[in-house]
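Researcher: I'm preparing a figure for a lab meeting and need a structural model of a single chain. I don't have an experimental structure, so a prediction will have to do for now. The sequence is pasted below. Please return the structure as tokens so I can convert it later.
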Amino acid sequence: MKAIFWVFLYGLLPFLAFSALRWRSKARQWLPGFEVFVKAWKNLSFGKRFRLWIATYFPVLCLLLAIASWSCGLWIAKPVARWKPLPVKERRIVLVNDLSASMQGTGEERLRQAVLAFLNTLLHDPNRENVRLGVVEFSGTAKVLLPLVKIADSSGITSEIRKKRLIELLSSMGTSDPAMGDGTELGEGLWAGLELIVRYGRRNDPLLSERWQRLKQTLLRSSLSQPAVEQLRDQLGTHADSVLVAFTDGFVEGEKLSSAAVFSVAKALGVRTYFLSVEAVPDVLAHSVDRAIGHLSVENVATLETLYREIASREARPSSRRSLETDVTQRKQAVWLGLAFFFLGMGYRWRKGVYVP
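Model: Understood. Here is the structure written out token by token.
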């Protein structure tokens, strides 16, 4: 409708100009002066005036209708660009938990309750069917407690069984595994969590495996330069729908793998990162993550659970990103073009005087 309005609006200008010229030429042809023409026009009967108006302006009206209908045909059939929400993608969330010797007792129990609260929040989220959860434990080394798995599906029975197994698995989380050794190697835990995200579904990709191992060897020797960090997304892909949540009760000097460097890699790949710490968060780490919270007390279980629930609620939401797509309306131009030729033909025949009363 907007196209028709503008066509008629712009078509009105030549219509008025044409009318002025027609009136001027008619006045010169019929009578020696305009005043005499006006007097003669007033003396005409209403019927003659009406027929004169129709004979003069109907061809112009037909021409405008033809242009309008042809323009409408093109406007309706042309591609239209519009913003459209992207399909909801899976959310991949990995928890990296410090289960070193210093967390034994109350610390590990409070952390276990916070992780279960995190899971419970995800399970009650409307978007739970699009969420995958993974859990990594670390002390002297890192261990994957839970690979990235879907926490729910459309089947109610299957979801209940899966929920029960997840709760049992996360409830078994503790510091009693001697195979992980002593220490607090946060960098190793972060690397194992990031590997779950980056290599998910591509474990057998030899090229990705080679690049991943080469990157780790580089980080073990030295830190990456800024240009090298910026090139990681081209080599390892983008992971904007993934989240890494890390918790530790302390830091050690001389890490095998720099936790700040791993956070920088995650940030370069688009992974959102949260870092929760009992101690104050060093500046180098605070600048490498999206959100860092220090001075937490594992004794205050309410605060820890609230933080984990807040993160779960925020990150389970589907992405609101949009893309610009081109949509072509599948309407035929035949009707509109037919009307255009019809009005042109009518105007031509009328102008020739065939239908003039």
